[in-house]
Amino acid sequence: MMQTIRRMAIALVVAAVAAIAPLAPPALADVPAGGTITEGVGVSGAALGQTLDQVRASLGTERSCTDVDYFPKLVTTCTWGVEGATGDITVDFGYTTTRPKRRTPPVARVVTVASDAFSTTRGIAVGDSIDELRAAYGDDLQLCGSVDCVFLGGDVTRFSISKHNFTALGPILRISVGSV
Question: pTM for the whole thing?
Fold first, then answer.
């Protein structure tokens, strides 16, 4: 009798686990240890126009996500660490104009890389000098406010440069793609 009850209990547990297993979320990918920053498009695993769920499917679970209300726009900023390297990938999600009347998910508007594990299609990475940047981009490089930027692929790619002592330009700190 006791053995029959034990078998029935085990069968119930197995059936319950089998019923719950399909409800588990799919496994997420890991953040790539490096990759390419494509001007006007994004970075390996996070492209402009993707939703947060699409980026999560490529980069995995983010380290942090914060909502900031810049009325009439709501921006969600999420950050992923880079596996095996220092730095991170930050993606700003928002709407193309004001908040839509229909419930559509916000999309990636800006993708920023602060890691030397990624480089642009022309070989520029965080930590490179302004001279290397100018040699790689030449006439395509323009001054956009206080940063140098390139207009390729319809969206702007910005290179944030550190300034030492307000006179000498230091290395590239961040590379951002999108409507910054």
Answer: 0.73
